[in-house]
Amino acid sequence: MEASVPVFGNCCLDLAADSDGVSEDDVSADADVLADWLALVDADSDADVLADWLALVDADSDADVLADWLALVDADSDALVLADWLALVDADSDADVLADWLALVDADSDADVLADWLALVDAD
């Protein structure tokens, strides 16, 4: 009677039960070793797949964090640019107000000087 032992895929090893001291126990033990080895290979493959998946998830998370950070930096930069622009507009407005006020004071002083001169001329 022959024993057929699966070796790899669809390949089988046909052994005669009475050839050269090969017993059914030896064939069963060899099949168990092969099954254990295949289970380890499968577990190792599963571990590799899981490691790859975790690396992709980590990279995706890192990319999300980087994108969020860049958006915050961009928003912060925009806010700083706006703040600087508003400060310049405010300073320019203050300068305009000061210039207008000085022009009015100068015109008022000129009017006072003219009035005083006219009064002196009339008095003379």
Write out key terms for the chains shown:
2 strands; mainly alpha; two-stranded antiparallel sheet; 1 helix; 81% helix; 124 residues; rod-shaped
If you had to describe this structure to a student in words, what would you say it looks like?
Helices cover 81% and strands 10% of the residues. The protein has one helix and two strands; from the N terminus they run ββα. Strands 1-2 form a two-stranded antiparallel sheet. Strand 1 (2-8) and strand 2 form a beta hairpin. The N and C termini lie far apart (153 Å). The mean pLDDT is 82.
Per-chain topology:
Layout: E1 2-8, E2 11-16, H1 24-123
Antiparallel strand pairs: 1-2
In short:
With 124 residues, the protein is mainly alpha-helical.
SSE-based structural type: mainly alpha
Oligomer: single chain
**Total strand segments:** 2
Q: Residue ranges: pLDDT <50 for 5 or more in a row?
A: none
The backbone outline, from C-alpha atoms, is rod-shaped
Question: How much of the polypeptide forms β-strand, as a percent range?
Answer: 5-15%
- SSE arrangement, N to C: EEH
What is the overall number of helices?
A: 1
Helix content: over 70%
Radius of gyration: 48 Å
Strand order within the widest sheet?
A: 1-2
Would you tell me the overall average pLDDT?
A: 82
What does the largest sheet look like? 2 strands, antiparallel
End-to-end distance: 153 Å
